[in-house]
Design a protein that fits this description.
- Helix 5 runs antiparallel to helix 6, helix 7 packs antiparallel against helix 8 and helix 8 packs antiparallel against helix 9.
- A two-stranded antiparallel sheet has the order 1-2. Strands 3-4 form a two-stranded antiparallel sheet.
- It is built from 10 helices and 4 strands; from the N terminus they run ββαβαααααααααβ.
- It is globular.
- The longest helix has 34 residues.
- Helices cover 68% and strands 9% of the residues.
- It is mainly alpha-helical.
C-alpha cells in the first residue's frame, strides 16, 4: 500500500513545529490474505487442465495425424489413436506436457490435504493410519508415473514410457480402492449429503475404472497376439475411459473440500516462528 504523508503540528506560544511523518500500512492491512480462492474453483481448474489436454491431443491427432497416430506394429487397420501414440506427435506432445506439468503441483498439494482430512475424520486406529499413509504414497506415485509417461514419449524411450504408464495405472487403481475403503468409514460418522454423494461417486468410478482397465488389457493382449483389424481401436477406446474416469474420480474432491479455501496469508502472532 503506498505510504501517506501526514503533517502533525505542535502549537506553542512563539513557534509552530512541523514534523513529517510517514504512515505505513496498518497491522490489519498487513494481515490480509495475499491470495485466496475457493477450493472448488481450485479443483475444477486442476481437473480441466488434463481434460483440455486430452481432448486437444486426440482431436489434433485424428484430424491432422491420423495415419501416424493410428499405425500399428503389424499394419492392420485402426481407427483411434492410443494416448501414447497421440502425445508422442507434434504439437500434441507440447500441449499435453504443458497441461500435465501445470496441474501436477496442485495434485501433490491435494494429496497432502487428504492426508490431514483423513486424520481429522477417522479414528486413530493403526489400520486407518496405515491406510492413510498408503493412500498418500500411491497418490504421489500416480502423479509421478503420469509425469514420467508425459515427458518421456513412446518414440523416445519406449521402455521408460511403458514403465511410467504401468506405474500410473497401477498406482491410480490402488489409490482409488484405498480411498473407497477410507471413505466407507468417513460416511459412517458423517451425515453431510456432500460426503454421502462423494462416497457414492467414488465407488462407482472406482468400479468403472477397474472394469475398463480389464477390457483395455484384454484387447491389448489380443491385438499383440492375433493382430486382428480394429481390435487396437477397442483398446484405445477403453484406455480413454480409464483416463476419463480417473479424472472424474479426482474431481470428487469438489464435494470433499467444498467449504475450504486455498490461501496465502500471514499467520497469527502466536503461530509465527
Amino acid at each position: 500500500m503506498p505510504q501517506r504523508r501526514k503533517d502533525v503540528f505542535i502549537h506553542g506560544p512563539q513557534t509552530i513545529l512541523q514534523f513529517q511523518m510517514l504512515q505505513g500500512p496498518s497491522a490489519l492491512d498487513r494481515d490480509k490474505p495475499l491470495f485466496r480462492v475457493r477450493f472448488t474453483k481450485f479443483i475444477v481448474a486442476t481437473v480441466l487442465l488434463p481434460l483440455l489436454g486430452f481432448f486437444s491431443c486426440i482431436f489434433i491427432s485424428l484430424i491432422f495425424h491420423f495415419r501416424e497416430s493410428t499405425a500399428t506394429h503389424c499394419g492392420v487397420p485402426n481407427y483411434l489413436p492410443s494416448i501414447s501414440a497421440s502425445i508422442s506427435l507434434t504439437p500434441e506432445r507440447y500441449i499435453w506436457r504443458f497441461c500435465i506439468g501445470l496441474h501436477s503441483a496442485p495434485r501433490f498439494m491435494i494429496a497432502l490435504a487428504y492426508l490431514n482430512f483423513y486424520r481429522i475424520h477417522l479414528s486413530s486406529r493403526r489400520i486407518y493410519l496405515l491406510l492413510n499413509y498408503l493412500n498418500l504414497i500411491f497418490s504421489v506415485l500416480e502423479n509421478v508415473g503420469l509425469l514420467l509417461l508425459t515427458y518421456v514419449s513412446s518414440t523416445e524411450t519406449y521402455k521408460l514410457h511403458k514403465n511410467g504408464f504401468i506405474m500410473f495405472i497401477c498406482s491410480a487403481l490402488i489409490h482409488m480402492m484405498i480411498t473407497c475403503i477410507l471413505w466407507k468409514m468417513v460416511k459412517k460418522y458423517s451425515v453431510s449429503p456432500e460426503d454421502q454423494t462423494s462416497y457414492l461417486w467414488k465407488t462407482r468410478l472406482c468400479a468403472f475404472s477397474v472394469i475398463c482397465c480389464l477390457f483395455a488389457l484384454y484387447f491389448y493382449v489380443r491385438h499383440n497376439k492375433y493382430c486382428e483389424p480394429g481390435i487396437y481401436t477397442f483398446f484405445a477406446f477403453f484406455e480413454y475411459l480409464v483416463v476419463l474416469s480417473n479424472m472424474a474420480f479426482h474431481w470428487t474432491a469438489y464435494w470433499d473440500f467444498g467449504n475450504k479455501e486455498v490461501m496465502i496469508a500471514t499467520p497469527p502472532e502466536d503461530k509465527r516462528f
